[in-house]
Design brief:
The chain is an alpha/beta fold and about 500 residues long. It has 2 domains: about 150 residues, N6 adenine-specific DNA methyltransferase, N-terminal domain (Ferritin, Up-down Bundle), CATH 1.20.1260; about 325 residues, Rossmann fold, CATH 3.40.50. Helices cover about 45% and strands about 10% of the residues. It contains 19 helices and 9 strands. Strands 3-2-1-4-5-7-6-8-9 form a 9-stranded mixed sheet, with helices on both faces. It starts with 8 loop residues before the first helix and ends with a helix. Keywords: Methyltransferase, Restriction system, S-adenosyl-L-methionine, Transferase. It catalyses: a 2'-deoxyadenosine in DNA + S-adenosyl-L-methionine = an N(6)-methyl-2'-deoxyadenosine in DNA + S-adenosyl-L-homocysteine + H(+). It is an enzyme of class 2 (transferase).
């Protein structure tokens, strides 16, 4: 059994490894996409019980969020409660209670009910399930530092879930990219901040950490938690996002499970608009016709990234700003895409485009990507481009050699602070007037003019890769044109 000592990160890591070894023995769990969610909801209950302990000590009007005998402390420590009886309790009493389905009773907090709506125990052996719970019960949370440690390790678990889900189109946004986008958005307390494709909550958690020092009172922290908003379509990332935020101290996360394009087009009026959008929307996919038809005919398309950009323009308050990850196809797109770009440039100042190097989102996709920063403050007059280069001697990134925070350092120094003052052109940065962009057919897929292009001295594999890229861009344009003709 656990002692009163805090669990170190190394000890916690060892416990989780042992827990995962136990799950590998159970016939009901097939791969990490089964094992990691199972571990996640049990870990969450363990950590939540520790937070309830703290609440009981500090809140005069404390009321437990979970009733007896469903609190972790009521059933988890009893090693004799095992086998079929234990599995039956988890399947037929505990989880139905947490879902609010047990004789009309359930947790006091509706967020918990929402969180567990689609949670099921997938383990077939009650004995292995008992072993797993006993292992997790060894984890002690006796201070906020322990909760922070748990949150840190939880982030690593979430990354593994996203790695395992990569083949199904759920791309993990590297933490350095998230951190750079948050920092260069220059956030303030009191601003409403939305991620309409929040996944497991990476952007929202980074915002919490960015503003933590400023939110130094109970009132300001509650306001910050209220101002953080998310939308997620898929059930597993939604579940993990709620758990992630709760473990980071957000009692009632303002996260909605819905198709963000439906959610945002349903919400109308000034009260629904936000100050800041930070997001990496899905791209390369297509939306159902019923979703694309929610948008005006002239800009109607099934390409998900285009629709997200359009919905964000409607979602921002006057003076609001956005940092968004978009593929190269959005930069050079024609048809409906060109008309969406026209609106973007007419209503917003697209002040900065960061060209990311190859492989930032490896191994999920090799599609070249960009970070767009814009403010809803009136028309674009000029756009700065900044090309991030991989470390010397490398052409790009991979899963085993990912992007690091240091690779954004020069760009952050060049940025010019919140007002973007003092920017100068250099080997990475160049400025393009809006007139030149318009004359180029609103094509933002621009190469760095400071980088030479001596074809005679470039290796054949580079030339071939560039040719393939160009052919893909042409194919993408033809596909967009075909869609526009079919929808006309």
């Amino acid at each position: 059994m656990a002692t009163a000592d805090k669990t170190s990160r190394a000890r916690l890591t060892a416990v989780i490894k042992a827990a995962r070894d136990i799950m590998r023995k159970d016939a009901g769990l097939n791969g990490d996409l089964d094992r990691l969610p199972q571990l996640s909801w049990l870990l969450f209950l363990r950590a939540f019980d520790a937070m309830e302990d703290t609440r009981e000590l500090v809140e005069e009007d404390y009321r437990p969020a979970i009733d007896k005998p469903y609190r972790w402390r009521d059933w988890a420590p009893n090693a004799d409660f095992t086998g079929d009886d234990f599995r039956s309790f988890v399947n037929n009493e505990l989880l139905p209670y947490l879902r609010g389905d047990l004789d009309g009773t359930g947790p006091k907090d509706p967020v918990l009910t929402s969180l567990f709506k689609e949670i099921h125990n997938r383990m077939l052996s009650g004995y292995l399930l008992r072993d797993l719970v006993s292992r997790l019960n060894e984890i002690n949370f006796t201070s906020s530092d322990d909760i922070h440690t748990m949150a840190y390790l939880y982030e690593s678990i979430l990354k593994e879930v996203r790695d395992a889900a990569g083949d199904s189109g759920e791309f993990y946004t590297p933490r350095p990219v998230i951190r750079f986008m948050v920092q260069q958005s220059f956030l303030s307390l009191g601003e409403s901040i939305l991620d309409p494709a929040c996944g497991t909550g990476g952007f929202l958690v980074e915002v919490l950490e960015e503003l933590a020092d400023k939110a130094d009172t109970t009132t300001s922290r509650k306001r910050l938690h209220t101002d953080l908003r998310g939308i997620e379509k898929k059930p597993l990332p939604y579940l993990l996002c709620l758990m992630n935020l709760i473990l980071h101290g957000v009692d009632t996360p303002a996260v909605v499970r819905n198709n963000a394009l439906v959610q945002m087009t349903n919400e109308i009026g000034p009260a629904s608009k936000v100050n800041v959008v930070l997001t990496n929307p899905p791209f390369g996919g297509e939306e159902e016709t019923s979703v694309s038809q929610r948008f005006p005919a002239g800009v109607r398309t099934k390409e998900t990234a285009w629709l997200f950009l359009l919905a964000i323009l409607d979602k921002l308050k006057p003076g609001g700003r956005c940092a968004i990850v978009l593929p190269n196809g959005v930069l050079f797109g024609e048809g409906a895409g060109a008309r969406i770009k026209e609106r973007l440039l007419r209503e917003c100042d697209l002040h900065t485009v960061i060209r990311l190097p190859q492989g930032v989102f490896a191994p999920y996709t090799q599609i070249p990507s960009n970070l767009l920063f814009f403010e809803k403050t009136g028309p674009t007059k000029e756009t700065w481009f900044y090309e991030i280069s991989p470390p010397e001697g490398r052409k790009g990134y991979s899963k085993t050699k990912p992007m690091r925070d240091e690779e954004f350092a020069e760009c952050a120094d060049w940025w010019g602070g919140k007002s973007r003052e003092g920017r100068v052109e250099n080997e990475h940065a160049w400025r393009v007037p809006i007139a030149d962009i318009a004359a180029n057919g609103l094509n933002f897929d621009l190469t760095n003019p400071h980088q030479g292009d001596d074809l005679a001295h470039r290796p054949p594999h580079e030339l071939l890769a560039e040719l393939i890229k160009t052919e893909k861009e042409i194919l993408h344009l033809l596909e967009d044109l075909a869609k526009d003709l079919m929808e006309a």
